[in-house]
Design goal:
single chain; about 110 residues; alpha+beta; 50s Ribosomal Protein L17, Chain: A; three-stranded antiparallel β-sheet; 4 helices; about 20% strand
Length: about 110
């Protein structure tokens, strides 16, 4: 279930970080982050791609409530979601990169397939 990891932050900070990362992933198609953050972002992104597969007012409002940029929501509904109409999940890929130099945190790249 998305949103169960605390990621060492209080609720407001964690929600803001996840909103920003999901928006950035949908906007650019690829981000580099830690493995645990990537897993959370992957779950949230897949949830919103599934919502965007059916284009109606309620789904658009749910996406607008979480995604921080209106242009990204339009891109989600017009470009990203139509690619995955025949697919039931598995819209993102997480590739592990190895430890980060400063603190040895396990790094990963998350991208849309």
């Amino acid at each position: 279930m998305p949103g169960t990891r605390k990621l060492g932050r209080d609720t407001a900070h964690r929600t803001a970080m996840l909103r920003a990362m999901v928006t950035f992933l949908l906007e650019n198609g690829k981000i580099e982050t830690t493995v645990t953050r990537a897993k959370e972002v992957s779950a949230m992104t897949e949830k919103f791609i599934t919502i965007a597969k059916v284009e109606n007012l309620h789904n658009k409002r749910m996406a607008m409530a979480f995604i921080t940029k209106e242009d990204v929501v339009k891109k989600l509904f017009k470009e990203i979601a139509p690619k995955y109409v025949d697919k039931n999940g598995g819209y993102t890929r997480i590739t592990k990169l190895g430890p980060r130099r400063g603190d040895a945190a396990e790094m990963a790249v998350i991208e849309l397939i």
